[in-house]
Amino acid sequence: MTSDPVRLGIAGLGRAFMLTVPAFQADSRIRIVAAAAPRADSRAAFEAQFGGRSYASVDELAADVNLDVIYVATPHQMHADHVIAGLRGGKHVIVDKPLSVSMEDADRMVAAAAETGCHLIVGPSHSFDAPVALARSMIDSGEYGRLRMVQAFNYTDFLYRPRRPEELRTEEGGGVLFSQGIHQIDMVRLLCGGRADRVVAMTGNWDPHRPTEGAYSALLSFIGGAFATITYSGYAHFDSDIWMDGIGELGAPKKATDYGKARSALQGLDAHSEAKLKTTRTFGQGALPTAATQHEHFGPVIALCDRADLRLTPSGVEVFGDQERKFFAAPAERGPRREVIDAVYDAVRHGNVPTQTGAWGRASLEVCHAILKSAESGNPVALSRQCGLYGEETKHE
Questions:
Q1: Cα-based angle 299, 79, 388 (whole degrees, multiple of 5)
Q2: pLDDT of residue 394
Q3: How confident is the model at residue 15 (pLDDT cuts 50, 70, 90)?
Q4: What is the DSSP letter of 288?
Q5: What's the whole-number average pLDDT of the chain?
Q6: Which residue range forms the structural domain that includes residue 316?
Q7: What confidence tens digit (pLDDT) does each residue in 227-236 have?
Q8: Pair (293, 325) in one structural domain
Q9: What is the mean pLDDT of residues 219-239?
């Protein structure tokens, strides 16, 4: 197999790309060669920085014969059409989470990957984070007995970051579940073996000016007996990064002076002005994220086993055993989102696919919909589209 860099095309030059571009730039295994974006100024900024080709449409990007893989970083509701265009253009695809908004679109995407024989990877997701992988390996070792329960919490200012109008409409993938809950769901599914079978949940929609889900709490049961609780609030009050040694989600130390800035920035803005403010965070206008000093994370996670509780931190896993307490460092941070680049390179150059395939992304999306359905009905919701860590699907009749 060739060891040449993977030739990457970018679909969408918005905020998602801004958060991941440092990873692409820092790794010699990736070479950014083309992009598609509707705004001419974004395309011009891309060409000025990377010297590659730019297109006004994803269809044109998908037809570029000089690409190996396309990173789809467009808005959620566009994922299906853009992923399928890339796959049918003979390209491997990595799509930013969530896989899609609807289950029907997810089915189309997974089918297109199977039909074309191209790899479909869903990420970046915090299930790639090194401390999560370390905790999974510690569970697999059997040293601490069976995994019994996982608890995951996160409290952020997500709902008050600048949003386009559709990002505040649940039916278009807005709210905290599709953008944020998918991270927690991916992580607890990875730790618990993947195959959830039932969900019961409640959601919070408490600000009439941000009319979508801003919080949720859910209980998931898994085949094999483990269960997990996941809780999230994006209402910009308590900040759970204080429980993560003061390290922010992207692995950099958090400034205490940033507290309250998200809500303050929106004061007096109408929907048009807010959407315009969001464009200042996109490629060509916004600043790149602060360089990470530790691994990325998604809030406190504790895995409870028979003989120890495992606390995930930005630097590793702390073990609270029967009689002693130990800390196991995750592999040293090798660069931003290096695990995601590993997955893309190994899939494209060596045919080794990660757990986070299209089928995995579809299973996590099913949990998002189950949370909404359970919250509306007040009843548990059975799951039927789950898969294990290596792609095996579980069907419930």
A1: 55
A2: 47
A3: confident
A4: P
A5: 94
A6: 128-334+366-387
A7: 999 999 999 9
A8: yes
A9: 98
Instruction: Return d(Cα 296, Cα 128) in angstroms, integer.
Output: 9
Task: Decide the pairing of beta strands 69-72 and 6-11.
Answer: parallel
Is 361 inside any structural domain? no
Structure tokens at 31: 């070479």
Same domain flag for 178 and 33: no
Using a 10 angstrom Cβ sphere, with 0-12 exposed, 13-18 middle and 19 or more buried, the burial of residue 280 is exposed
Mark whether 152 and 94 lie in a shared domain.
no
Nearest alpha carbon to residue 190 among 139, 232, 143, 124: 139
User: pLDDT digit string (tens) for 89-146?
Assistant: 999 999 999 999 999 999 999 999 999 999 999 999 999 999 999 999 999 999 999 9
The residues near 229 (Cβ < 8 Å, ≥ 6 apart) are 149, 150, 151, 152, 217, 218, 219, 220
- Identity of the residue numbered 92: H
Q: What is the DSSP letter of 225?
A: S
Two tokens, residue 349: 């150059």
CA distance 303 to 88: 40
User: Is 360 a domain residue?
Assistant: no
Cβ atoms of residues 179 and 136 within 8 Å: no
What's the token pair of residue 30? Answer: 């990736």
Task: Count CB-CB contacts under 10 A for residue 90.
Answer: 14
CATH code, 134: 3.30.360.10
Identity of the residue numbered 202: M
Residue type, 359: A
Question: Structure tokens of 216?
Answer: 């949720």
CATH number at residue 61: 3.40.50.720
Please give the pLDDT value at position 81: 98
